[in-house]
Amino acid sequence: MASTRQQRREADRERQKRRTNRSTHSWSLLLGAAAVIVASVGWFAWDRISHTPPVREGAPAWSADGKRIVFYSERGEGNGEILMMNADGSGLTPLVQNPADDGSPAVSPDGRRLAFDTDRDGNFEIYAVNLDKTQLRRLTKNPARDVSPAWSPDSKTIAFMSDRATPGKGFDVYTMAAADGSNVERVTTMGSAWFPQFSPDGKKLAFHVGRDVNVLDLTTKVMTPLTQDPANGMYPSWSPDGQLIAFMSWRNGRTQIFTMTADGKDQKPLVTLASGSAIDPRWSPDGHHIVFVQVPEATPESPQDSKLPRAIYTVELSSGKVTRLSR
Predict the structure, then answer these.
(1) What is the pLDDT of residue 6?
(2) How far, CA to CA in Å, does 254 sit from each of 119, 235, 249?
(3) Residue ranges of the domains in the chain?
């Protein structure tokens, strides 16, 4: 299973704590190491110049008009920043940059606002900002982790993941008013619900529970599983007409992008990469493309190496042509 950006960031913090807590109290050791340090300065300078830190990019999402893609980007051990590019990979523009870790961007269907999660408050919360970078607003205020916002089709509601009911143990799906974060409602109670996405008519939420895609009817509260592990499914994304769902699955050994009908039938692979795994699909507003992320090989027992690069690609559904966008 792909490790989330939040999981990688928390692991980075633990490593940094361990490095910070290692202090040397012996001056003799410092003096003995001085000669080695001096001799190594040239090598470190060369190494820094000749080795570009890996760029990890992910969580792509389309603008409302389908002309641009927003995503997060991490360079080396740096914090995540939110960037935007044209649908062909050109015109790279920063949207959210600060010393904190920002990610999981989502553009509102009315094309006006960007929602994202960030740990600028010491823990992950959800914020929204206008696409012109004005009126930044914090929407959640909870000591738990609130992440992965998704807009309703009318741009009035945001679904998100939170572990506030089971801190540090598992996520459930919640909804809130997009304007100010009010009217918070918990819509799942199993402690393992991930990456919600509204259906185009706003009547359902798709997400994965454990390793399987499920759809929740928001009116009847009936939840229907669409995949069954080991023929698993994760990271669901609706087609614009609501007839299909794209998702990722490692049922064939390597993680691939699949599609299925909205009732779970006709499950078939769409993208199989020559190297690496394909994850996190998101359907374009016109239905012609799916954007996704290429990551290093992984299995449920062996997560991806966070030091290796991750890049954003698209696939054209009519031709199957795969194009790398991020560099």
Answers:
(1) 52
(2) 32, 15, 8
(3) 51-324
Alpha carbon of 159 to those of 74, 124, 142, 194: distances in Å? 25, 15, 15, 11
Helix (H) or strand (E) holding 197: strand 193-198
Which stretches of the chain are DSSP H helices? Answer: 5-21, 27-50
Distance (Å) of CA 136 to CA 151, 183, 296: 17, 20, 34
pTM, two decimal places: 0.84
What radius of gyration do the chain's Cα atoms show? Answer: 21
CA–CA separation, 93 vs 70, rounded Å? Answer: 9
Q: Could you tell me the CATH superfamily of domain 51-324?
A: TolB, C-terminal domain (2.120.10.30)
Spans of the chain below 50 pLDDT: 1-3, 8, 11-50
What is the C-alpha to C-alpha distance for residues 149 and 173, in angstroms, rounded to an integer?
Answer: 10
Residue 233 DSSP class: -
Check if the beta carbon of residue 143 is closer than 8 Å to that of residue 168.
no
Give CA 32 to chain center in angstroms.
46
State residue 221's pLDDT score: 95
Counting other chains too, the contacts that 314-319 makes at CB distance below 8 Å and 24 or more residues apart are 314/87, 314/284, 314/289, 314/290, 315/257, 315/270, 315/271, 315/289, 315/290, 316/288, 316/289, 317/270, 317/287, 317/288, 317/289, 317/290, 318/288
Task: Evaluate whether 118 touches 150 at the Cβ level (below 8 Å).
Answer: no
Helix (H, G, I), strand (E, B) or coil at 38: helix
Strand 185-186 versus strand 172-177 pairing type: antiparallel
Amino acid at 239: S
